[in-house]
TrEMBL record:
This is AI-2E family transporter. GO terms for cellular component: membrane. Keywords: Membrane, Transmembrane, Transmembrane helix. Belongs to the autoinducer-2 exporter (AI-2E) (TC 2.A.86) family. The keyword Ubl conjugation does not apply. The chain crosses the membrane at residues 7-23, 29-47, 59-84, 151-169, 196-221, 228-248, 260-280. It holds the Pfam family AI-2E_transport.
Amino acid sequence: MNEHRFFLTAIFLAVLFSIIKLYEPFLMIITIASLLAMATYTINLQLYKLTKSKHLSALLSTAFLSILLFGPIVYTITSIGGIVNNFDFTMIERVQTYLRTLDYHLPAPLAFMQSTLDDFISNLNIAQISTTALSYLGSIGKNSAGFLKDMLLIVVFFFFALLNGKDLIDYFKSVMPIDAKEVNFVFSEVTNVMSVVFYSILFSAIFQGALFSLVGMYFGYDGLLLGIFYGFASLIPIVGGALMWIPLCAIEVAHGNTTTAIIIATYSIVVISIIADTFIKPLIIKYINDKMVKTPTAVNELLIFFAIFAGLTTFGFWGMILGPAITTLFLSLLKLYKLLKEKHYM
């Protein structure tokens, strides 16, 4: 009996290793799709109650995710080509000339930094910076095919994760050497946090992007494109939307519209960064946690912030999903270990 079990275990490990090697290029994609399926579990559940069809609810949820993923990115890629081709390089010289005419005299407490600031301004080469930025923009179109392929595969795996996810979870519960309640505890913790992270990132990016698109449209820009850019920029910790409104202000200054630049900067800092991000965003997260998550969870915003930042640094774009998931899984296992230890001593 022991030899039979040993042989079966050896065969299983060998096949498992082969499966991992076979699907290694897709492991990240499968992981992202599974985490997104967990994050949107409540939406799929509501659609299932409405349609009474597992296939139709999974299809509708997949269509919803596809619009969120492909819509903004396809519009952005098609718009970038026009920006690069029609870019006015004389504007760069006007910005650089204007910046060098300003008085950068620092106050007395910061006088020790005056020489450093003067050297920085004198050596500032906006033309080179802009050329580099435009080359990056141009490379987006060239490299977008691989990114779109990954997103397409994520959508496909997302559909099957919703369709067969419950059966897979039930199977793992039956074969794992821990109690089903413990598996449910960890799964519930990760699912709840992923839902809060996903919805808060989504709604916050859309909300802040919409606010920035309003000021962009008011001054004659492509508001939808600016809103999409700002929404993605807002996901980057620390710098965030400054990646959008600072260059836009520089463009206005280059055209001699200093007042417009001041209005855009003030609006971006006060309305978006302070009011929307500092005061309204926590209310959005609270509403999501109370109304849209099956079991409300105590989300430490600072921890989630560092998890997203670490995820972006380590894994790139999809790190905003992987970072919180890995952190939550680790904390859930620690909490489960503590509960089991307390139960053992009781």
